[in-house]
Amino acid sequence: MARVFMKGTEAVAEAAVRAGCRFFAGYPITPQNEVPEYFARRMPEVDGVFVQGESEVASINMVYGAASMGVRSMTSSSSPGISLKSEGISYCAAARIPMVYANFARGGPGVGSIQPAQQDYFQATKASGNGGFQMMVFAPSTVQEAVDMTYRAFDYADRDRNPVLILADGVIGTMMEPVELPEMKSDEEIAAMKAAKGSWACVGHELDYAHRSWIQPGQWSTARMQEVNEEADALYRSWEKDAQAEEYMVGDAEVIIASYGISARIAKSAVNVLRAQGVKAGLIRAVTVNPFPYKAFDRINYDKCKAILDVEMSIPAQFVEDVKVGVKERCPIKTCLCSGGNIMSREAVLAAVKKIMEG
Amino acid sequence: MEKIYTRTKTIQEDKVSGFCPGCMHSTVIKLIGEVIEEMGMVDKTAAVLGIGCCGLHMDYMAYDNTTAPHGRACAVATGMKRANPNTLVYTYQGDGDLASIGLAETMSAANRGENISVIFINNGIYGMTGGQMAPTTLIGMKASTAPKGRIAEEHGYPMHMCEILNQLTAPAYLVRTSCNTPANVNKTKEAIRKAFQNQLDGKGFSMVEIVTGCPTNWGMDALASLDYIEEKMLPEFPLGVIRDR
Ligand SMILES: Cc1ncc(C[n+]2csc(CCOP(=O)(O)OP(=O)(O)O)c2C)c(N)n1
Ligand code: SF4
Ligand SMILES: [Mg+2]
Description:
The structure holds 2 protein chains of 2 kinds. By secondary structure, chain A is an alpha/beta fold. Chain A has helices at residues 8-18, 34-42, 56-68, 79-95, 121-125, 143-160, 170-174, 187-195, 222-238, 261-276, 319-327, 346-358, and strands at 3-7, 23-26, 49-52, 73-77, 99-105, 136-138, 163-169, 176-180, 214-215, 245-248, 255-260, 281-286, 288-290, 307-312, 333-337. In chain A, the strands form 3 sheets. Chain A has a 7-stranded mixed β-sheet with strand order 3-2-4-5-7-6-13, with helices on both faces. A 5-stranded mixed β-sheet of chain A has the order 10-12-11-14-15, sandwiched between helices. Chain A has a two-stranded antiparallel ribbon with strand order 1-8. In chain A, helix 1 packs parallel to helix 6 and helix 3 runs parallel beside helix 4 (79-95). At the A-B interface, helix 3, helix 4 and strand 9 of A face strand 1, strand 2, helix 2 and helix 4 of B. Strand 9 of chain A pairs parallel with strand 2 of chain B. Iron/sulfur cluster (SF4) is lined by residues 19-20, 23, 25, 53, 123, 127-128, 214-217 of chain B.
């Protein structure tokens, strides 16, 4: 496998192509303009389809349509654009249509700022649209991880017949790093993946009422609607096994940083600095933010740990609410925050940890 | 005796129509079903239903279908057709759906010349939600959100979608028909057939705008609604082929 130097946005797009994604629709928004631009160049080379939608709303609905035909499909955007997609995402979740989308999050609310932020956490993990549906949400902290997560996201989407979100941020999107790209799925594999969806894909079926494809983003009968929601709930609960966390130097730690995505990467470098100075710091990084790796917080030695430090690029803090659920009041939780497009600084993390150690 | 007319097989036998008496949605979906059957395309067709009374038949159509978010049918159909060009993809949308909330998707799909067929039910009102004003509501026509009737100074004028799309270069076929007389029903059927055939021939975007009635929300019986179509709707929405390339 070749090691190449790539920008996060383009690496994500290439990973999707290699995973067999053959339909992409998107609309320009900073900091992810290179995603549609990359697909515009790349899709014709692999007999795939790229459409520049007239809006984020149109783009997500094109993906809803393409994915309904059994084709691995993707869209991407940044925060305000993701808000516009929410109705379409909800339709995909309701109709159990597998698709993948990425949010290269920027400062908010409103048009906010075009710089990186982590202010879409609740939207990503709790309510990405109406109706209380859920999705698996992956939070990369390196370009390599964004590549690997995007590649696997399509498998999870197909496994569950459900949307999957890559929750990245402007740093991951615009940073260039060396990456190993995954293997390109062959045309035969891609055809087989599509064929496997033949029974429900909306491609046309023999005239047979019982076995027609009926993509249903809603139900006439409230009894059936409840059943559908119960089935979805069972799926969501089955994800407990899929929760992933990176636990770094947690065993003897006196301060444990809880973080995700780019903040966690910066926090990890702070942990290394602190350890070199003899400070017993550790890190729990949520790799999946839904399902949330609550169990990682059960493995903490609370006799040693003085406090948890929540590090995130959001004011008010959001990720901390899940940390609280994991910690269950077994030790105090402090925060180290920035917002609005300001990137977390290692110095701020170091200072926050030292304050805890002194206090 | 020889049986010369049967119900189209594309409509499930044991189901009851959800449409009001005199509603022409049922006439049009029957025509679409007949055309698909006659073209031998039942196993290769997918309908994209808009949100509105147009979705009331999803339970008893016997072939593949999906429902788009309100107004987004042309975007959903774009994705479907591009992802699987062998499927005959048509949208079925009301005037609120196609000409108000979905105007951008309609215009943009038409402008790209997407190879899809659009069946547009213009009944001058929001049927499903109970008679609110639509972009096609006539001047003076009462709606629950225009209790004094549509007033040009306040609400603007009825939108003529065929003529608006006729400003674009790409569309292949734009036609306005009605179902108020047997002759017009036959013309509507032929227009639907042509819109579908255009797609099979790869000609691009076709739209059949069908002027229909909504007796329930117009507050009249089925027969009176036929007169209203003839006397009020058709002078505003003249029938005929607007574009045929
Ligand atoms: C996003 C969204 N907004 C509003 C609605 C409510 N709604 C359902 S149908 C409809 C109007 C449908 O009118 P039209 O498209 O003319 O179809 P008709 O019922 O007249 O055939 C509206 C506003 C909705 N379902 N979704
Ligand atoms: S409300 Fe109007 S459009 Fe809807 S089914 Fe009844 S008559 Fe038809
Ligand atoms: Mg209407």
